[in-house]
Known about the structure:
By secondary structure, this protein is α/β, with parallel strands linked by helices.
Amino acid sequence: xxxxAALDSGLxxxxxGRHVVVETPEGKRLIxxxxxxxxxxxxxxxxxxxxxxxxxxxxxxxxxxxLFYRQDEIRTKxxxxxxxxxxxxxxxxxxFSEHQLSRALIAAEAERISPLxxxxxxxxxxxxxxxxxxxxxxxxxGYGVLPLSLRLSKEVDREALxxxxxxxxxxxxxxxxxGKSTLxxxxxxxxxxxxxxxxxxxxSGKHTTTSTTWYWVDAATRTTALxxxxxxxxxxxxxxxxxxxxxxxxxxxxxxxxxxFYNCTHLHEPGCSVIAAIDSVxxxxxxxxxxxxxxxxxxxxxxxxxxx
Length: 308
């Protein structure tokens, strides 16, 4: 008990390799190193740590509410823990990948984290209209879709975003070129300078920055947080069982449990409620052909034998 009493509590606000930056309840930040694999912490974790000179050691990671991560055949990449929502930023130009968007949404659904989609570059009229129409099915599924023009209407966008972010911990996710850095700097002035300081402290040299970084939108009260993560090109879902995939897709979910066979894969079975709803005009919850194609391709991918 004596050893436990000597530990301090803290919040992981940055990570790079095996090192993390921990913020104390008073707002002081220091570099901490993990003690063994059990103390492997990610941004957003609440931890117990022990100080040693100017640095510290993470002794224990407190139980998590959730963990947002991706996994492919080679490795698992943890983004952040204890999230209230994931903001997925895409742009009208370059054209976003619906497969990539769906993967991020499925990963959020699997952890019961609320997703919010933001579409940037509304000033590009024709590309924006085309992109917006591609996102209409996601609005019908119940996802919030927010139009942005981060290059032009900065104050308007800032106010609109803050309404969705207030009092929450939000992971900002998006492919390169979508405007993620612009969004972070709009909401957290000086974020880039803060990132550079953390990078230097962690000796990450000239690399972009730390892997993932936590920012307070309201530094005085510390109630609203943004977590910035690196841009991603691939998003593996190997941690999701194929049989669980349909339940992570809101447009397929209403049809589950109504198929002829209890173990229906929704791919070829007779009497499948999902297949019957594809582009159906009579179903109250139609499934779009494009979305069904994404489901079938992901199901095939997740059904492949794992090669570890």
